[in-house]
Amino acid sequence: MAETTLTHIGQTQPRPAGLRGVAADWSSDQRAFKNVSWGKAMMWIFLLSDTFVFGCFLLSYMTARMSTRVPWPNPSEVFSLHIGGSDIPLILIAIMTFVLISSSGTMAMAVNFGYRHDRRKTAILMLLTAALGATFVGMQAFEWSKLIAEGVRPWGNPWGAAQFGSSFFMITGFHGTHVTFGVIFLIIVARKVWRGDYDTGRPGFFTSRRGRYESVEIMGLYWHFVDLVWVFIFAFFYLW
Amino acid sequence: MAEATANGLGQHTLHAGHPHDAPATGVADADVHQEHPIKLYLVVWAWLFILSAGSYMVDYVGLQGYLRWSLILIFMMLKAGLIVAVFMHMAWERLALAYAIILPPILVLVFTAMMVFEADYTLLTRMVFFGTGS
């Protein structure tokens, strides 16, 4: 009980180590996440729920692939590109992976500069992140149109198991949607940073709450999550 | 609304009590621990590139079987770990949050095990009723 009282006068109380500390945090009054703002905690919980959404997509893909008698199309060949007279396997997907990882790197830098209250660098790095994200979506659109032109449909394809198309469009489509929304919000937050909203405490247009530079980190959490999901999609759908 | 206000207040006083806080702009940082040297991010970034190249090479070289699958999983887990721990700052969060976020996805593995049995059963019935052909 002494701990709850301490929380009210606003000090970060020393935490017992390990699981004991976790139990102390969770059993304390009102706030389980002591030094985490509600915005960050809620973003983490949203990401957790999104993890389950993508987890279920990948699981349904696994179930479909394991339970079909028809051979699964070889992704290495399906996603190869004909460049310079030879087929290079998965090359577009590899480039997309590197683009997304680069965008994660620039986002991490943006968060870092955000904490230093460096408006200019933060905004530029966020816009760079958004540009890389848009590049990723563009390449995905190219990949989709290529596959659709080759006859891949949610109900069938020329190379094997019919579930290939439905899994592909569902998983990459949902991920691409996440990237697209990420790009939109990156631009919104970058504009706020650039205008100095987080320095002057200008109320947001939608929530009327004063923003803080922490918004950059919360935006970063979402963006890194999008990259994280791609790591799993790349491994399970494209490489497996 | 009362709750939100109380939270905001708690946040503010929480930092006023922190010895390292620098209230230069009057805007409270959420967490002063989050400033890390840029070099750390660059190193992690480079590792993510190396690991991605590694997982791409698995396919490019054309490894097959258990070697392929285990390499894919190892590269995947290393990349995911680096992103969550460093880029998403989970390594510096309080354990109460880290456990709350990282433990639940492990339950997906239970779901996976269930679906493996289910898929095997479906495949078996399909082979029994439709034969192994086409």
| CATH-scheme architecture of the largest domain in chain A | Up-down Bundle
The order of strands across the largest sheet of chain A is 1-2
Question: Would you state the CATH class of the largest domain in chain A?
Answer: Mainly Alpha
Hey, roughly how much beta strand do the residues of chain A contain? Answer: under 5%
Percent of residues in helices of chain A: over 70%
Give me the number of helical elements of chain A: 9
Name the quaternary structure: heterodimer
- Which chains make the largest contact? A-B, 78 and 73 residues
User: Unreliable stretches of chain A, pLDDT < 50, 5 or more residues?
Assistant: 1-10
- Mass-distribution shape of chain A: globular
pLDDT under 50 segments of chain B (min length 5)?
A: 1-32
**Number of domain modules of chain A:** 2
Helix and strand composition category of chain B:
mainly alpha
Whole-number mean pLDDT of chain B: 77
Descriptive notes:
The complex is a heterodimer of chains A (240) and B (134). Residues 1-10 of chain A have low confidence and may be disordered. Chain A contains nine helices and two strands, in the order H-H-H-H-E-E-H-H-H-H-H. Chain A is mostly helical. Chain A has helices at 2-8, 18-27, 38-67, 75-78, 91-115, 119-149, 163-195, 197-200, 214-239, and strands at 81-83, 86-88. Chain B is 73% helix and 0% strand. Chain B is flat. Chain B has two domains: 35-92; 94-134. The model of chain B is unreliable at 1-32 (pLDDT under 50).
Question: Which labels suit this protein?
Answer:
heterodimer, A: 240 residues, mainly alpha, Four Helix Bundle (Hemerythrin (Met), subunit A), 2 domains, two-stranded antiparallel ribbon, 2 strands, 71% helix, 2% strand, globular, disordered N terminus, B: 134 residues, 4 helices, 73% helix, 0% strand
What is the element layout, followed by pairings?
The complex is a heterodimer of chains A (240) and B (134).
Chain A: H1 2-8, H2 18-27, H3 38-67, H4 75-78, E1 81-83, E2 86-88, H5 91-115, H6 119-149, H7 163-195, H8 197-200, H9 214-239
Antiparallel strand pairs in A: 1-2
Chain B: H1 2-16, H2 38-61, H3 65-87, H4 95-130
